Structure formats: C-alpha cells, structure tokens
Amino acid sequence: MTLTPLTRPARLRPGARVAVVAPSGPVPAERLEAGLDILRGWDLDPVVAPHVLDAHPRLGYLAGTDEGRARDLQDAWCDPAVSAVLCARGGYGAQRMADLLDWTAMRAAGPKVFVGYSDITALHEAFARRLGLVTLHGPMTAAMTFLKDPGTQESLRATLFEPESVRTLGQGTARGLVPGRAAGVTFGGCVSLLAAELGTPYARPSAAGGLLLIEDVGEEPYRLDRILTQLLRSGRLDGVTGIGLGSWAECGAPEDVRALLLDRLGGLGVPVVEELGFGHGESNLTVPLGVSAVLDARSATLTLDLPALV
Predict the structure, then answer these.
(1) Taking a C-beta distance cutoff of 8 angstroms, is the pair 169, 152 a contact?
(2) Is 280 a catalytic residue?
(3) Where are the beta strands (DSSP E) in 151-190?
(4) Residues 51, 124, 137, 280: which is the catalytic one?
(5) pLDDT tens-place string over residues 39-94
(6) Which letter does DSSP use for residue 16 in this model?
(7) 215 catalytic, yes or no?
(8) Would you say the C-alpha torsion 10, 13, 17, 22 has a positive or negative sign?
C-alpha cells in the first residue's frame, strides 16, 4: 500500500464555531480561558465541551473518564454547527478513548478541521485511517506555547483562515542532515506515540510514499534510540521517502540527539531535514498531515503541493 493524499477540510471563516475538547490530560482552567480569548480575537466562536475541565476520580493524569472524553469529541465532531475541533492539551489518554468513538457516525458527519499534537498523534493516525481526513499537527488551546509565542499563534491562524499563505516550512530555521529531495504524503507526529500505535487497529500497515514528520519531548537519547529501533525493526518506516524533524525538547544535548537521529535514520537513504519548527519547542508551527509535499534538504524546506485546507 502507498500513502495517498487525504480529504482536505474547508478553511474557517470569521464567526465559525469551533469546539474545544480534552481527549488526554487535565486542563488548567486559567490557561484554557486565555486560549479561548485568543480564538475570540480571531473572530471565532469557541465552545468548550462539557467534560474538558473534568478530573478522573482516581487517575489524576486524565481529563475525566474515558467515556466522557470520547463523548465530548464525538458530539463535537457530529454537531453540524461546529466547523473545527481543537484539542485543549496533550499529556496522555487519547489511546484509551479511541476505541469508544463511533467512527461510522463521525465519518457520516463529513470533514472538519482537527487540531492537536503530542498525545493527539494517536488520533491523527486514527482520523487518517478511519476517516481518510487531513488533520493539523498544531498547537493546542491551553498549551503554553500557544499562549506565549506569537509565531505559533500566527502559524495556526494563517493555516485556518489563509492556508495558501503558509505552504512552506523551514525557511530561516531548518537545515539538511541527509541530502536529497523527495515527494510524498505527510504523516507522523510524536514519535513515541507512533511506536505505541504499532499493533493497534489504527496503525497504518505501510509508510510507503510517506514523508515522515516526527518530534518528541522528554525522551533521553537511549529511549529515542529504542523507539526508532522498534519502528525500524517492525518495518513501519519501510518505503518512507523523506524525513522532517521537529523539536526534541528535554531529550538531551542537541548534538547527542542529532548523532542518534543520523545513526538510526541515515541508513534509510532518504533526505532528512531538521529544525522544521513543529513540536514541543519554544515555537510550534502548524503542519498538515495527509497532504502531498516536497522535502528538499538543499533548501531545508517542506513545501506543500496544495494548501492544507480548501
């Protein structure tokens, strides 16, 4: 199987209603409100799902029960008045509720914009596999990077409203690690979640024809080695045409991480570009998953063939 471009949702218009959900970890109320204010400043109409501020009765790392988090996501997605579903934060928990979603009902609701990263990688994979839909690997409403970094805010705003203006990533920040130029369909996210998805119903059976985009946070080099080695040994990276790297915050000294990435990924014989600006770093640029693009190590850019949204 070869990865093919997925269906692109419609861009947002002023006044659009967007739902904020919490599929993973608990959400600080004050940070959520600050994020909602930013969305309102873009002339959006944000609504908060009922269980976003819940706390699990026993497991403090979850934003309420699996059933409540799944119900929020499904109800928001199936609401015809909602144009986009934005995640409030990552953490952990998306995998626990993915099997509780009614994917048939969500498919019938039609394409919408879906935004998140980190633990939300599990849902990006599920949306690609079950809905055939382009999703946005981008900042979350209550994330500190979104609240504090103007570049992160503008990247998401432009992608949502003016997607043709943000078709190239990497200008001024990225550099090539392995030379070459490759075309493919973007996929990926938090690399530890990609490894954790192996063997689940949502893991795609092939990466052939795919441009792999990966990043992570808080994983020491030996753990990143184990994650990448697992992906390599499983065959999950067979057929990848190129690799774009985001941030590796709290993953050790940059030179150690770079050496590891070259050691594990350089043998694939495909171009590799680092510091593309997405992920858990000080800035988190929005990048679509499921679109055709070109990765060029010489110019150190990732350029989309078409805007992320129609």
Answers:
(1) no
(2) yes
(3) 168-169, 175-178, 181-190
(4) 280
(5) 999 999 999 999 999 999 999 999 999 999 999 999 999 999 999 999 999 999 99
(6) -
(7) yes
(8) positive
